[in-house]
Design brief:
Elements lengths: L1 E8 L7 H11 L3 E5 L10 H5 L4 E5 L7 E5 L4 E5 L21 E6 L2 E7 L9 H22 L4 E6 L12 H4 L7 H12 L3 E2 L13 E2 L11 E2 L2 E5 L1 H6 E6 L15 E6 L1
Parallel strand pairs: 1-2, 7-8
Antiparallel strand pairs: 1-14, 2-4, 3-4, 5-6, 6-7, 8-12, 9-12, 10-11, 13-14
Protein name: Exodeoxyribonuclease III
InterPro entries: AP_endonuc_1 (IPR004808), AP_endonuclease_F1_BS (IPR020847), Endo/exonu/phosph_ase_sf (IPR036691), Endo/exonuclease/phosphatase (IPR005135), ExoIII-like (IPR037493)
Cofactor: Mg(2+)
Length: about 270
């Protein structure tokens, strides 16, 4: 069978709903991992996507986080949050909160995690330490699935560019989050756990970025970053027939600042 899996930081599913529905109809993924829902679990537009043949498992609070998986091939073994997931103590909070940044499910023959890795803000910020803790917890959480014989992948907005080739100008990001050795070491640890980076092919430009700032004409100038990633185990990677960034979904008004990443499998 063939299977199309995609990941997309939607940057508010409510604000981007027309774009989401349009893209689902045109791209026709079997499984879609979403991040940055910015809506509570019960506020997700379940009926609208169900009309296109998708069931949804969502996890959100209505703030700046939230994740979901849409599937045409069913759901089994749904898990919300990473086991032992760290929380973040915000400046205005008394207790550390476990944010809705991860959801997993088995969809047909494939198991997937949809993850929205913390941004990190600044290298000397508590949020950066939280990001590194979160990535280490992710590594520990996927060890068993990564070593299994079932195709398995972690997809989402990792908020890390794996190499200097994944940003438009390394000098611009020097000293900033997303490119630090510690963040990249966390991705290397995922690879050492048995997951490989399924890099999308470039369609229009030499480099396949997935995020472009809304400011300074970053998208038309292709001043972007590749931070939306697919990390798959050996059975998953062996089944990949194609992977690409759908830049068309980033064009026009009212779009997310991220583009969907599509992975096609032959199983």
């Amino acid at each position: 069978m063939t299977l199309r899996i995609a990941t997309w930081n939607i940057n508010s599913v409510t604000a981007r709903l027309p774009k989401l529905l349009e893209w689902l109809e045109s791209a026709k993924p079997d499984v879609l991992c979403l991040q940055e829902l910015k809506c509570a679990t019960d506020a997700f537009p379940y009926e609208e996507v169900r009309a296109l043949g998708y069931e949804t498992e969502a996890h959100g609070t209505g703030r700046w986080n939230g994740v979901a998986i849409l599937s045409k091939v069913g759901f089994e073994d749904v898990v919300r949050d990473l086991p032992e997931q760290p929380g973040y103590l915000a400046d205005d909070a008394l207790l550390a909160a476990v944010e809705p940044r991860a959801i997993a499910a088995t969809c047909g023959p494939v198991r997937v995690w949809s993850v929205y890795v913390p941004n990190g803000r600044e290298v000397d910020h508590a949020h950066y330490r939280y990001k590194l803790e979160w990535l280490e917890t992710l590594r520990q959480s996927v060890l068993a699935d990564a070593a299994g014989e079932r195709p398995f992948a972690v997809l989402g907005d990792f908020n890390v560019a794996p190499t200097d080739e994944d940003v438009f100008d390394p000098a611009v990001f020097e000293g900033s989050t997303h490119v630090t050795p510690a963040e990249r070491a966390a991705l290397a640890a995922l690879r050492e756990a048995g997951l490989a980076d399924v890099a999308p092919r470039a369609l229009k430009y030499d480099r396949a970025y997935t995020f472009w700032d809304y400011r300074a004409l970053a998208f038309p100038k292709n001043r972007g970053m590749r931070i939306d990633l697919t990390y798959g185990n050996a059975p998953f990677v062996a089944a990949v027939t194609d992977s690409y960034v759908d830049r068309e979904a980033r064009k026009g008004k009212g779009t997310s600042d991220h583009a969907p990443v599509v992975v096609d499998l032959a199983l």
